[in-house]
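Aim 2 progress update. The chain analyzed this quarter is reproduced below.
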Amino acid sequence: MMISKRSFCLSAAAGAFLLAAGSASAPAQTLRNVTFVQPSPSAINSFPVYVAMGEGYFKDEGINMRVESVNGSGAVIQAMASGQAQFGRPGPGPVLSARARGVDVVFLYNMMVKSSFGIVVKDGDSFKSPTDLKGKVIGVGTADGAEVSFARGVLSSLGMEEKRDYTFLTVGDGGMATAAFTRDDISAYAASTADAAILSHRGIKLRDITPVEFVTFFGNGFAVMQETIDKDPKLVEGFGRAVVRAQEFAVDPANREKVLAHLKAGMPQESEDKAFANALFEQVLAKTMRVDQSKGWGYQNPKDWEAWHVSLVETGSLKQPMPDLEKAYTNAFVEVWNK
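Predicted structure tokens:
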């Protein structure tokens, strides 16, 4: 599987940052080329990576980071499994599905601590609850994305079965999703934080009808292959340490202009409207804030993983319970990242 040419990689931008940060009198540092792959071209949704590049945090860890974009979490995992990328940002549902197929991918860092997804409808429509969507078509961005697992879990908890009570339709995101709503091809959409912001910005006023108990289902985070953990733990330590520094930098309101500049360098089209980019960043940042302040950035609560696991089994996304759920994620590096 080749990584999508639709990617918005930052090789040139990263090189510029590295040159600017270098000193004429200091010896050149040998940097290791590392690739990070994300499930969409959005820089804002992967903001810690772009901020870490822009601020030189990866360079401090001996890493020359390159970003590639593909279409959905499934493709992210394929890129890592095939050796085309060392790190990625998939969702928990696709990670567990991949592990059930024998792919030894490990969720490394819980970035989107709060749910990145919701089931949204047009504000003027009569739907009040997901149960009102019986017999309706629900739009999704990709056929195997994390938003599909999330929406299926919500609907299953309400006794609804796919194809019997509702249908998923892959309509894409952004303008394509807007058009699907406008044409009434879909009655609802399984939306990420970014999707909802984009749809609203394009004139589709939305209302979230997701049950409150599903808000705590965490979203996409950083993942790696178990082989990388075993053979190159120092690389994993360096990656996570740079990401934590970037998160802390981004949280400080005094750094907002620098953060937005780094994100614009990564994906200029996303930041053409600065006000929208800032608003979207605020929404994404809020999803990353730690629920338990006593835990470090990236910490993963085993109870949250069990909730995802149960939901995926109940919906049929997993054919049977996994006997080794604890191998799907690790907190082994959280302490060293947060020192």
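Confidence is low (pLDDT under 50) at residues 1-27. The first strand starts at residue 32 and ends at 38. These observations will guide the mutagenesis experiments scheduled for the next reporting period.
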